[in-house]
Amino acid sequence: MLCGETMEHVTHVLVRGGYRLELVFDTGETRIFDATPYLQKGVFQRLRDPDLFRQAYVAFGTVCWPGDLDIAPETLYDQSRAIEAEGRG
Question: Residue 81: which H helix or E strand, with range?
Answer without folding.
Answer: strand 80-82
